[in-house]
Amino acid sequence: MREPDMGKVDALVGRLVGDLGATLSGALIVLGDRLGLYKEMADGAPVTSVQLAARLGLKERYVREWLAAQAASGNVDYDAASKTFSLSPEQAMAFADEQSPAFFAGAFEIAQAVWMDEPKVADAFRSGQGLGWHEHSTCLFRGTERFFRPGYNANLVESWLPALEGVTERLEAGADVADVGCGHGASTVLLAKAFPRSRFFGFDYHGPSIQQAREAAQDAGVADRVVVPAGGGAGPAGRGL
After folding, report:
1. Do 188 and 124 belong together in one domain?
2. Distance CA 75, CA 219 (A)
3. Hey, which of 27, 119, 218, 234 would disulfide with 203, CB 3.0 to 4.6 Å?
4. CA distance 49 to 71
5. CA 6 to chain centre
6. What is the CB neighbour count within 10 angstroms for residue 127?
7. Within this chain, do residues 128 and 224 fall inside the same structural domain, yes or no?
């Protein structure tokens, strides 16, 4: 029998304890995002657990425990003298402002899908048949859009496109653009708003994402330039935006 190095065991267990804490904290971030707890604190005003629970119609004891855990993680601030909690401007950017380039709550919905879909991945290990994007849990599609949209908003038109020689000029003049794998249409809609002379064709083989993209284009007032391509969508089960 091999003898373990107990010093290495201690180091490994110490790292795993940190991993476990981060995993559990991630679930609390998803919870706070879903219940609107972060957004209710977005203004930075100090608040007690009683006040926050009352505003959102939640049970105070659960809110108190959530706030305490978030303060321990450094995701919210705590003032011991007044026994109040608040979000700093930086924390609000990460957890409460979906238009912020630092918004991160959506990323934890992606992590949630990893755990929820683990049995499907295990089946794929046994069968070798793979796991289609469309077979994942809904939180993966929603989280992907929410995580990447702030980056698109901050960089796509202002930085990324100008780095491609001649692309911005072509879009300004008017062009037909294919957004392949458009998902919920975050980049498609953003481009349509920025370049009114161009038309944008979204392709994604995941039907529910296409529907979300259509609704996003309609809500943004660009449905006249975000169109359904004649050939349908990309992939065997696809439909065009």
Report:
1. yes
2. 32
3. 234
4. 12
5. 40
6. 9
7. yes
Rounded Cα distance, 27 and 154, in Å? 27
CB 144 within 8 A of CB 110: yes
* Cα–Cα dist 101/98, whole Å: 8
Q: Give residue 69's region: left, alpha or beta (phi > 0; psi -120 to 50).
A: alpha
Last residue of a domain, one of 97, 127, 161: 97
3-state secondary structure of 81: coil
Host domain of residue 206:
110-240
Question: Contact 46/67 with Cβ under 8 angstroms?
Answer: no
Beta bridge partners of 204: 239
Sequential pLDDT tens for the chain (241 residues): 899 999 999 999 999 999 999 999 999 999 999 999 999 999 999 999 999 999 999 999 999 999 999 999 999 999 999 999 999 999 999 999 999 999 999 999 999 999 999 999 999 999 999 999 999 999 999 999 999 999 999 999 999 999 999 999 999 999 999 999 999 999 999 999 999 999 999 998 888 998 899 999 999 999 999 974 433 444 434 433 4
- List the structure tokens of 28: 């609390």
Q: Which of 54, 71, 97 is the last residue of a domain?
A: 97
174 dihedral zone (left: phi>0; alpha: psi -120 to 50; beta): left
Question: Which residue's structure tokens are 């029998």?
Answer: 1
C-beta of residue 147 within 8 angstroms of C-beta of residue 104: yes
